[in-house]
Queue: 2 jobs
Job 1
Amino acid sequence: MAMDLTLLYHVSYGLYVVAAKDGDHANGCIINTCMQITSENPIFAISMNKDNYTYDLIKKEKRFVLSILSEQTDPAVISAFGFFSGRDRNKFEGFRYSVREDGLPVLEENVCATLVLDVLDMTDMETHVVFYGRLTDLLEGTAKTPMTYSYYHKVIKGKAPKNAPTYQADTGAKTAARYICDVCGYVYEGETLPEDYVCPVCGVDASHFHREEPAAEEGKPSRYVCDICGYVYEGEALPENYVCPVCGVDASHFRSE
Ligand SMILES: Cc1cc2nc3c(=O)[nH]c(=O)nc-3n(C[C@H](O)[C@H](O)[C@H](O)COP(=O)(O)O)c2cc1C
């Protein structure tokens, strides 16, 4: 039976920069997969894609820092740390950060707190490795409201790249029909709504969904998709000097759909 993977958008997360060091060179990347596992002896788990440079550093150094981003953190931080690799550039350059005595970089861009962790163990998960880290230090940040993954999607309208465990391919839903729940507004995308479908948000049955036809081409705005971060611009024509509000690249990185 085919699974509706969009239901996984209901799993909640925060947004973090996980960082480690390579000699004198600091590197880090965005993750959303972080979870506290134990309490009196605080241990955390993070999931790292094996292709990420930060993964190599954590595996080698067995120590990392985890900064909790806030709603005030500039989206440019997410763009720089989440869509580019430290193999190609120094990602901390241009951002406020300090360096601890042990050489670990601590991001200071409106973060709520930074955790310092020693790797206790790791589990291979095919494309990813889950690292378990014991908390050894905790630094207070300047911000108070952590950014949730949902805030990132809904307010910043950001996407996740392929290396993120929660990545979902764009299904090109523009041409698919949509069924809208008349109780809570939840949108099911697909040609046919299953008869026994139950709204995943408010629990009403299929009779509460009304069909919206696929967007007619005429009079509808075109979609331009950023090939770096997946951000979608909707409008008749993409302005020549357009800059992606999520990852900061110029109009040449947008393809029309
Ligand atoms: C919103 C978001 C969430 C992400 N979550 C994860 C994650 O949980 N684990 C992971 O390995 N990569 C995740 N990534 C992808 C990495 O941040 C990305 O591949 C980065 O370019 C790796 O940089 P590096 O090669 O310098 O380590 C995420 C990216 C974004 C934008």
Job 2
Amino acid sequence: MLKVIQVGIGGFGRCWLETIKRNNSVATHAALVDIDEGVLKEKAEAYGVPAECCFTRLDDALDKVDADAVVCVTPPAYHREVCVKALEAGKHAITEKPLADTIEDCRAMVAAAKKTGPPPVHNPVTQYKGGCSSIPTRAAPSGA
Ligand SMILES: NC(=O)c1ccc[n+]([C@@H]2O[C@H](COP(=O)([O-])OP(=O)(O)OC[C@H]3O[C@@H](n4cnc5c(N)ncnc54)[C@H](O)[C@@H]3O)[C@@H](O)[C@H]2O)c1
């Protein structure tokens, strides 16, 4: 079972909330993270994630829950910060498109991945595939 911290749960984050719920034999939410406390409360209730697993800062989620992967569904300006933090904490990093909004940020993410293990999984084409349902299984630990 892939334990996922989802960062960014408003907007397109709903697609990932639904996808992980739909694929609950391979993935589950270890935590939800969003800077908007209202969205956090609403989605935690809607998706049955306990309040103690909901955070406004990724650092707190990384400290307090056991997780395999971080899915980043924030605006692109934050993809670098979220993914590098996830990789440095030893997690898989899966990010929404675009990889980042500057070449400098993209290079920093690739450099972090080279140091820490597998490259970040980028999700460029979900609009052509009817959802993100193939992504969690790509990042799932072997045997999941
Ligand atoms: N694959 C697709 O078809 C598709 C479709 C739409 C959006 N996207 C991508 O999804 C990502 C999010 O887009 P959106 O439209 O949902 O954006 P949005 O502006 O609606 O923000 C999404 C959520 O992220 C939260 N957030 C913002 N900064 C944060 C931070 N630093 N830490 C934690 N949470 C933070 C916001 O509070 C919000 O709830 C973007 O990368 C976008 O390109 C992909």
